[in-house]
Amino acid sequence: MPHHQPHWRRVNTAPHRPFRITVGTSSGYGQSSDSNPGRIVERTIAAVEQWQAGRASSGLAYLPGVISSGTVVYAWVPLEGIPQTRHEPVVQYTGILSPAHDTHLRDEQAQEALDDLARTLGTMYDQTRVYCEFGAQAWVLEQDGHTTSRPAPPLADS
C-alpha cells in the first residue's frame, strides 16, 4: 500500500526578523578554560533556559533560538605595526521571531530581550563585549568601565 503524503498549508506569515548573539567563551584574550564545544553548548543551554524561564514567568519577551559553537578568527595591527592574528571559541544564539508566536512583539521589545540575554551570556563568560544582530541592525554591547585593546568608536548621534 503506498504511503500517503499529508497535506501541508501555510498558516502564519510575517516579516522575517532574524536575530543573533555572538559571545566569546574564553575570558580576556587567553585560551578558554573549557575548550570542549559540547560542554560549552551545554553550559550555554542551561543559562538560556534559566533566562527564558525567568522572562516567561515575569511576562517578558523571551526568544527561542538555536545554540551553536564555533571559532572566531580575527586580526589587528598593534602600535608596533606588526599584524597579529588570534582565534577563540564562541557560542552563537540565533533564531527568528516566530510568525506563529511573536507577531505581537515590537522590534524594540525583541532588541531589549536580546540585550538582556547578551548581558547574561557576556557576564557568564567574563566578556567585555558581546555582538548582537536583529534584522538589518548590528550592535556591540560593552561592559561599563571595561575596554578592549581596540576600543569601539562612539555611537553617531541619531
Structure, briefly:
It is built from two helices and five strands; from the N terminus they run E-H-E-E-H-E-E. It is α+β, with helices and mostly antiparallel strands and 158 residues long.
Secondary-structure map with pairings?
Layout lengths: L17 E7 L12 H21 L8 E11 L7 E13 L10 H18 L4 E6 L2 E6 L16
Antiparallel strand pairs: 1-3, 1-4, 2-3, 4-5
Structure commentary:
This protein is α+β, with helices and mostly antiparallel strands and 158 residues long. It has one domain: Alpha-Beta Plaits (2-Layer Sandwich). 25% of the residues lie in helices and 27% in strands. It contains two helices and five strands, in the order βαββαββ. The chain has a five-stranded antiparallel β-sheet, covered by helices on one side. A hairpin with a 7-residue loop joins strand 2 and strand 3. Helix 1 crosses helix 2. The longest helix has 21 residues, at 37-57. The radius of gyration is 19 Å and the shape is globular. The protein starts with 17 loop residues before the first strand and ends in a 16-residue tail after the last strand.
Poorly predicted tracts of residues? none
CATH architecture: 2-Layer Sandwich
* CATH level 1 name: Alpha Beta
Number of domains: 1
Structural class category: alpha+beta
The strands making up the biggest β-sheet line up spatially as 2-3-1-4-5
Head-to-tail CA distance between termini? 65 Å
Q: Tell me the total number of β-strands.
A: 5
Gross geometry? globular
Largest sheet: 5 strands, antiparallel
Give me the strand/helix succession: EHEEHEE
What's the overall average pLDDT, rounded? 88
Radius of gyration: 19 Å
Quaternary structure of the protein: single chain
Q: What fraction of residues sit in β-strands?
A: 25-35%
Using the coordinates shown, work out and report the CATH topology.
Alpha-Beta Plaits
Helix content estimate: 10-25%
The DSSP helix count reads: 2
